[in-house]
Each structure stands twice: as structure tokens, then as C-alpha cells.
């Protein structure tokens, strides 16, 4: 589904991803974890095809990342919400839906998926930060992309909403979508099928949450990541 081989990305003078390899299977939720500045957003940008790369290949659904056939098949939610502040939530979602020839009625289903039905007719400029993030998420899922790349989509959401959003991600994957989600929250990491742990641009774990915990010798995912990071510091 997504195959990254020998990826090297430089940003400024810094090598942000260094000979990075990973494979992300179809119909799964994969969590992307790592310390701040480790290269998570950069990897996501390379998968979506908006990142200049110095070497290596990124293949998505059999096509080079960023190529024309993928444009309608990938949804990307950045950390900064990308919605029109002077439109209502419903207008935003219907607008993005219309770009994919999706009817207003079908577009409105995305409102429920992110729990914004009661704010449908409110201007985005009047929403709270967490609500605005959910509006942005709704605009990305309205076209039902085959690949959904989400950069910290649950930041600023309360536990009930986070739970609902994760249930929704799981449903999308069960319907065949490939979902890549970055997060700093370990209870979310536990809900992924697979985890990619990055540190300083290098992949230090690529496994199921259970296997990551087992290889670190602890039942606690927070502790497992700390141990794997320290182990890598010793060998680096
Ligand atoms: N436009 C840029 N020019 C130069 N360096 C950049 C640029 N954008 C990011 N970087 C650097 O690239 C590295 C990786 O950044 P990236 O945003 O991928 O990290 P991240 O793992 O997503 O971090 P966070 O968890 O804080 O969002 C960081 O050291 C960052 O300072």
C-alpha cells in the first residue's frame, strides 16, 4: 500500500530522514510516534507527495507519491486546520465534497463522523480550536480517500471525542482505507494495528503494539518507547 525505500530528506542543512525504509499495509491503522522534531511530519509530507526528497522512493497504491493518479485518493490533515474561516462548517464540508462530485447529502455524513452536527451552521471563525481541527478532519474524510494521513488529529480533543474519532479511524480501516496517524498519546498508540517509532530520522521500531512492548520487556507502551529510544542511543 505505502512503500518507502531509502528515503533521504534534507530540510535546511539538516538530514531529517536518513535512508528511511518502511511499509504500511492496506486496511490498517498505523501510528507514527517519536519525539518532537524526529521527522514524523516530514515522512507524512513525503507520503502525500509535498516534500522535496534528496534520495529514495515513496510508492503509494503502486504510484510514485505525489503523482496525478493519487490526488483523488489521499486525504491529508495537517497540524494547522485547513478550512475556510468565513464559511460555516457545513459549507466547508460541502465545498470539499463538491470538488469530488459528492452530493451535499452525502457530504453532511462527515459532520456526524467528527461530532459537529450541532455546530454545522456556525462559522469556522467562531469555533474552538478542537472544533476547528475536527472541521478540517471532516473536509479530509468527505471524499472517502483510500489513504488517510493525519498529523496529530486528536490534539485538543476531550477523551470522549478522541475515543469517537479513533472508533471512526478503525471503521475507515475496516472498510479498506489505510490510515497513518501521528500521535504523542500512548493510549492512542495502543489502538493502532502497527506502530512506527522514529527517532532523529531513523526508524527504531516497526511492529504491533504488543510486539513493541514485548521487545522492550514491559507492558507499558510509554516505558517501552523510552527503553527503545535509550537502547538506540547506546547503539547509535
Ligand atoms: N521548513 C523547514 N526548514 C528547515 N528545517 C525544518 C523545516 N521544517 C522542519 N524542519 C526540521 O526538520 C526536523 C523534523 O521536523 P518534523 O516537523 O518532521 O518533526 P515532527 O516529528 O513532526 O515533530 P513534532 O512532533 O514536534 O510535530 C526538525 O528538526 C525541524 O526543525
From TrEMBL:
Keywords: ATP-binding, Nucleotide-binding. GO terms for molecular function: ATP binding; ATP hydrolysis activity. Pfam families: ABC_tran. Transmembrane segments: none annotated. Gene3D superfamilies: P-loop containing nucleotide triphosphate hydrolases. It comes from the Bacteria. Residues 2-225 form the ABC transporter domain. The keyword Transmembrane does not apply. The keyword Ligase does not apply. This is Putative ABC transporter ATP-binding protein. It comes from Actinoplanes missouriensis (strain ATCC 14538 / DSM 43046 / CBS 188.64 / JCM 3121 / NBRC 102363 / NCIMB 12654 / NRRL B-3342 / UNCC 431).
